[in-house]
Amino acid sequence: MGGSITWVRSATSGGAGTTVTSPDSPGVGTWYYRPQYTPTGAGCNLADGTETTVNVNAQPVAPGLTKNPDVAAVVAGTTLTATTTSGSGGAGTIEDQYRYSLDNGATWSVWDATVSSFAAVVGVNKIQSRRTATGPGCVESSYNEVSWTVNPAAHLWNGSISTDWQTAGNWTPSSVPTSTDDVIIPNGTPRYPLVVGLGQCKNLGIQNLANLVIGPTGQLTVHGTLANSAGVNGLTVQSTSAGTGSLLHNTDNIPGTIQRYVFGGLKHLTVSIPVTQAANPTLSVFQGKPVYQLTYPIHSWLYLGANPATPLTVDQGYMIYHNSTSPSTFIFQGPMNNGTFLPKAIADDCFQIIPNPYPSAIDWDAPTGWTKTNLLSPIWVWNPNFRNYATYNEGVGVLGGSRYIAVGQAFQVRSAGAGSFLDMNNNVRVHSAQPFLRSVETEQNILRILANGNDAADEIVLRFHTDASEEFDSRLDASKLYGAAGAPQMYYQLPGGYRLSINSLPDVSKLRNIPIGFEMSVSGLITMSFSGIETLETNNAIILTDLLTGNSINLRSEKEYVFNHQPSNNSLRFVLSFNSITGNDQPVDELVKVFAHGNTIHFSLPSTKEQAFNVEVFDIAGRKLAEKQLSAGNNTLTSDYKGVVLVRVVSGNKVYTNRLLLY
After folding, report:
1. φ/ψ (deg, to 5) at 542
2. CB 537, CB 508: distance < 8 Å
3. pLDDT tens per residue, range 98-119
4. What is the C-alpha to C-alpha distance for residues 80 and 280, in angstroms, rounded to an integer?
5. Interacting residues of 568 by C-beta distance below 8 A, sequence separation 6+
6. What is the pTM of this model?
7. Are 42 and 1 a contacting pair, CB within 8 Å?
8. Arithmetic mean of pLDDT over the chain
């Protein structure tokens, strides 16, 4: 007779139980084991052996730990401890124990039945817990552990009062950081910081899962090193209708989020992408708005299509059409630019659109930080409010043109010939609260002429500067860059046809005639307004003459001139004249008669107390054709010029003008 032996485990003595194999792993409790013989012969019964009792004790589980303070990082000297929950399991003599380390676990304090409190030292500090038990089969529990990163003595954000960076109680120690203070933003605080005014620090560390927001009116300067372990969501430069935040930092490849708010309305804007190329930007960042790229040598804009996956490069600016009456906020995420930035190459004698690559405004007039090689001095920025280009050069702007280029904005420069080059570094960055355009400083010796019509405008500036010349000045003048179709286009025209929006001349007291061109592709009523006359350091009379109508106004007494425009009008319609007449101009006695026959101008001049008349003749470009002193009576003046001329007769403080045709 043969058979086999198996083992049966049962929760009760003599119970049916479960067949098990060796080794067996029963749960906690009391168990009964017995061998069982199963014969193979016919008619034989099962036979149980002697039963053995086994008590299985629960293995010890270490006490729970909650660190205090419950943050990822602290500064040296902070008191560290932990609160506990009781361990479990084990048998016999049971004890919960604790220890700590000041050097990331290289050495430990002795195990103790109570949790110690200790002063943090720089590095990684830890607390561990365990449970020991002496009962049969019991082993020491595994460890629970909590840790802190301990930084050198610094300002640690605690967020106990509010989100305000400038509130002392939000920091440990309780004071607002200065330019010499290191700052740590740990995770786990009740609130995270928001910079709403001016904030600064030396080194700044943003820990994983923490975040820092620079609000739309906030300006943060990090004078030392910036570290952001929380990724693009850990550092945000906000932009709203109230403005756009600003960050000055000095560390490469810091991840962040930069916003650019755009007011609602149908308009074109020039924009930049203020992150590095590693962000791999595409058309999608502009949320479906049409995007255009500048082409040259012809100054035109190429539509880049509607595929949101079309890649963009950050070394150039773009023009977008904001095709919504609702505002937009563009979001740029990735490594932020720092240090030297090289824009796209500038072709000879062409314009190029340059991005502001930084999370702050930049200053075109910064004394250091720019490398400008063979470039004209001005910059041009599209101003959607006037559908024209705002221009800035050497302290003077037109249509709001400024030395400051805002976050997320692009501007244009122009090559002065072969070998043009431009780059920039951190020294060009500034904090500026202005959204896109900013006013310029107090002006002197500057005359502004603004033309409004067809819901658009253009502006030109006449500046008197000791370094200027009568010819084109690449440093002080600014070329005219034409704006949108249907908008007024106004310019000064130099001999040779060179057109300027800023014309700089050397001597405000010199008598001169300056041609002004005006164009618009549609008909309409135009209002010219004049400002800055009081800043001119001269008593000369300033006369605007409309060569089409023959009308003249003295800008010292009249601040506006309204005229009807037709696209077919001669573009060189106006002459701005500086002459020696002081006070208000008064017409010469109505007995003055001037007319032309052929190429001869005839004068009939009355007797006056001055007994002398100064006669000047100009063509429609403002060039002086003739000048002669005449006495009272009948006089003639012959010219070889054929075409429309402006004749001006001056006697004392009185002036007479007329438009004649010579043939």
Report:
1. -120, 110
2. yes
3. 999 999 999 999 999 999 999 8
4. 44
5. none
6. 0.70
7. no
8. 89
